Amino acid sequence: MSNAVAQLGSLQSMRPAITADLMAQTGLDECWLTELVHRFYIKVRADAVLGPIFAERIVDWEPHLERMVAFWSSVALMTGRYHGAPVPKHVSLPVTWSHFERWLTLFRETAIETCSPAGAAHVIERAERIARSLNMAVEGAQSASDTAPNLR
Ligand code: HEM
Question: Smallest Cα–Cα separation from 37: which of 107, 104, 98, 140?
Fold first, then answer.
């Protein structure tokens, strides 16, 4: 067995204990995360700036919401339930940091309304970090397309 596979195996066997610790520290569970995600996207869809960007790309909201609950379960509770790749889904969006700031404003608001103070602080810290890294990927893709030679 390779070292990496052995490490992955031991990480997987530690996962339930890590998840249990995170649940105890934050008061979060799948039920709270489901509530958070659903409430958050109600706000996003009603938002004058973000709403149209999502509406143009998401027709069937149920699978998106399920994917986002799995994502937050992985990010906040380390359950490993999410297996997607968010970066490629964002790099071509017509967004700048101001869109991410708006996204974060709505997310912070919803987290504070929905979760315990420790749970809200935990998901907000994760969201801020991921938003900064998605924004860097978007900026990278935008500047690469600005400087690409026109081959026509
Ligand atoms: C400017 C702010 C943002 C906009 C406009 C935006 C928009 C979108 C859209 C339209 C999709 C659906 C893409 C598709 O299925 O084709 C999506 C998916 C997703 N977004 Fe965002 N997003 C934003 C910020 C964020 C942030 C900050 C996070 C994480 C904290 C995030 C996490 C995700 C994830 C996990 C998916 C699912 C990717 C997959 O298919 O596995 N997004 N987003």
Answer: 107
DSSP state of 26: H
Q: How far is ligand 1, taken at its centre, from the CA of residue 91, in Å? A: 10
Ligand 1 within 6 A of CB of 50 = yes
Residue-wise pLDDT for 42-61, tens only, equals 999 999 999 999 999 999 99
Cβ–ligand 1 contact at 131 (below 6 Å):
yes
Q: Is the CB of 137 under 6 A from ligand 1?
A: no
Residue 104's identity, in one-letter code, is L
Q: Which tokens is 37 given?
A: 């995600």
Beta carbons within 10 angstroms of residue 58's beta carbon: 13
DSSP 27: -
Q: Could you identify the residue written with the tokens 């937050």?
A: 72
Is the CB of residue 87 below 6 angstroms from any atom belonging to ligand 1? no
Q: What angle do CA 121, 125, 130 make, to 5 degrees?
A: 150
pTM over 0.85: yes
